[in-house]
Amino acid sequence: MMQERSRRWFIRQGSFGLAASTLATNSLLAGNVGRTAALKPAILGGAPLADLHHWIDWPIWIPKDDEPLVLQALRSGVWSRARLVDQFEKEWAATLGSRRCLTTVNGTTALIVALNQLNIRGGDEVLVTPYTFIATIQAIIANSAMPVFVDVDPLTYQIDPKKLEAKITPRTKAILPVHILGMPADMNSIMAISKKHRLLVVEDACQAHLAEIDGKKVGTIGNAGCFSFQNSKQLAIGEGGAVVSDDEQFMDKCFSFHNLGLPYGEAPGSIASGSLREGTKVRLTEYQAAIGLSQLKRLEAQTGTRNINAEYLKNKISQIPGIVPYKLSEGVTRAAFLLFGFRYKAAAFGGLSRAGFMKAMQAEGVPCSSGYTPLNKQEFLKQVFQSANYKKIYSSSQLDYEKYMENNQCPENDALCSEAVWITQNLLLGPRSDMDIIFRAMEKTYTNRDKLAQALDKQL
Fold this sequence. Notes:
The chain is of the alpha/beta class.
């Protein structure tokens, strides 16, 4: 049923456009929003504003449009990378305005391949944000390099360029900005710093499909950009990733590395020529590429819808004390909004904890989550430092975990991780009336904050 709702919504989008499809709903809702304050919270026995199954389902799959190419790929018996993977790579590169694209099995391996072929190795330091998915850091570690954490801008949630230069040492080789939640980092400042200090830049754009800075797609600004097509992403394949770059020689090497070190241009499965370099095997399949090609047809329209709804929702919830929406970085001309983020200030809600706030929102039918915990404080780093590999590469001083922790404190990120609330991208794909439901749920929670704090925080 939800897939049918999704299908009908996007057909309607293509026929009439967002403004036309929401006009009637807006007029009906206008008189209701102000009355929300008088309603009893659902978690205290009132009626919820929506059902948790109300929202556009994700991923979207329209059988009559999406299945023919996938079935063709399956029935062909050619399942390892071939014509469809080549086609997807060409179309993704063209969509971004990049010269080349190489697909991999996921976004993590895309990052590993890119860093490896830019010669990031043991002994090198990579400057990175602590506010990201663990895969960003795992890619650095997979190449035996050392992650160095740079604190975030509290408003944009991105790596703070003003704090980068203080972390640069003679061992610093690269900057790995992450366009987290689909909101671009301040790439103009980052590229200026990288040029000044002759550092490589690899963009983790795994959450930022079609986001732009000054009209240029993220992922195409640094030396290389990496994307993920995991199931939750804006272009969902299930699993999948990509490296993009305008550097032909670099991309040839990436192709070789992802294909067992065989020469670029060698057919997958060919062994006669022998390998030229260290390699791995992280090739995409034909049926994955077929899914990607079907999803790509809708990505532009979906991105536009998310941006329109995010801007509307941001303006609405800014009226509520204690709700502090994101701010886009300097130069951003378009975001991608894999996640809609805001900071929750418990003091303005009568001390209602973030966990209590989220429980109240979910009871109203609005799913939300708290997001990341500080990566720079997680135990896996201690384990890495104790590994035989790292002990062979780094000095005991460099592997002093307590000293490392002291030098990698990120207080702004700690605060962000304790206050952030996320709403997933599929909630931004509905009509404007869905944004009003989210706003009304927050308004209802705020108005009843004292009762909620007393009732919920005793349970948590």
